[in-house]
From TrEMBL:
<protein>
    <recommendedName>
        <fullName>Nitrile hydratase subunit beta</fullName>
        <ecNumber>4.2.1.84</ecNumber>
    </recommendedName>
</protein>
<dbReference type="InterPro" id="IPR049054">
    <property type="entry name" value="CN_hydtase_beta-like_N"/>
</dbReference>
<comment type="function">
    <text>NHase catalyzes the hydration of various nitrile compounds to the corresponding amides.</text>
</comment>
<dbReference type="GO" id="GO:0046914">
    <property type="term" value="F:transition metal ion binding"/>
</dbReference>
<feature type="domain" description="Nitrile hydratase beta subunit">
    <location>
        <begin position="121"/>
        <end position="221"/>
    </location>
</feature>
<dbReference type="InterPro" id="IPR008990">
    <property type="entry name" value="Elect_transpt_acc-like_dom_sf"/>
</dbReference>
<keyword id="KW-0456">Lyase</keyword>
<dbReference type="InterPro" id="IPR024690">
    <property type="entry name" value="CN_hydtase_beta_dom_C"/>
</dbReference>
<comment type="similarity">
    <text>Belongs to the nitrile hydratase subunit beta family.</text>
</comment>
<dbReference type="InterPro" id="IPR003168">
    <property type="entry name" value="Nitrile_hydratase_bsu"/>
</dbReference>
<dbReference type="GO" id="GO:0018822">
    <property type="term" value="F:nitrile hydratase activity"/>
</dbReference>
<dbReference type="InterPro" id="IPR042262">
    <property type="entry name" value="CN_hydtase_beta_C"/>
</dbReference>
<dbReference type="Pfam" id="PF21006">
    <property type="entry name" value="NHase_beta_N"/>
</dbReference>
<dbReference type="Pfam" id="PF02211">
    <property type="entry name" value="NHase_beta_C"/>
</dbReference>
<feature type="domain" description="Nitrile hydratase beta subunit-like N-terminal">
    <location>
        <begin position="1"/>
        <end position="104"/>
    </location>
</feature>
């Protein structure tokens, strides 16, 4: 989380205006954007961490001006071209689409409910033993960068970098997004729920005794 999308605690973005929870799609193309994302997600060309990183890699201009589902569409379009599923000309409509054997892998409408109900568990066996236990004090790495790939995907937000927290739960071992987003393997390692006092994260919190709990991988953490 080191690009324009890493907005937590950043000043100048204006207030958050919650929308009514019963409004899922504002227009019909929003439905199609979600459908396209789900359909292409089963092609076997990328995983959820790759897709998150694709949206993070949008230009700052596009990221700050695109709507929610425009970001989704842009990320999918970039991945389709980058992975050779379609050409840029095909995507723009200036070339006739060529048949692809991947078409049979695309998620079909009757399959969607079952696939979403099953979810995508990310827990995996691992030989890496937990370094920390509930109740331990920890400090996050000072720079929230992916240590495997410069400028790559990571789930450590900038506002929590270099912060002191307390382990409240060990979730087991899970796929490391920093590796999985870049084709370096799932590299599962221990995942912890870590609680941070608001006073540790923000200069002037409205409620200093509040806590923020983040799920963080072992490689993000060090002993104080």
């Amino acid at each position: 989380m080191t690009r324009v999308h890493d907005m937590g605690g950043r000043f100048g973005d204006g207030p958050v205006t919650p929308e009514a929870e019963d409004v899922v799609f504002h227009t019909d193309w929003h439905r199609r954007a979600l459908a396209l994302t789900l359909a292409t997600g089963t092609l076997g060309k990328w995983n959820i961490d790759v897709s998150r990183h694709a949206r993070e890699c949008l230009s700052p201009q596009d990221y700050t001006t695109f709507s929610y589902y425009e970001k989704w569409i842009a990320g999918v379009a970039d991945m389709l071209v980058a992975r050779g599923v379609v050409s840029a000309d095909e995507l723009e409509g200036s070339a006739e689409p060529t048949p692809s054997p991947l078409a049979e892998k695309a998620l079909k409408a009757p399959q969607v409910a079952g696939v979403l109900a099953r979810g995508g568990p990310a827990d995996r066996p691992s030989d890496i033993a937990p370094t920390f236990a509930p109740g331990d004090n920890v400090v996050t790495r000072k720079h929230p960068a992916n240590t495997l790939v410069p400028g790559g995907h990571t789930r450590l937000p900038a506002y929590a970098a270099g912060a002191r927290g307390r382990v409240v739960r060990l979730h087991g071992t899970h796929v490391l997004p920093d590796s999985n987003a870049h084709g370096l393997g799932e590299a599962p390692e221990p995942l912890y729920a870590v609680a941070f006092p608001a006073s540790e994260l923000w200069a002037h919190p409205e409620h200093p005794r509040d806590e923020v709990v983040l799920d963080l991988w072992q490689s993000y953490l060090v002993t104080p």
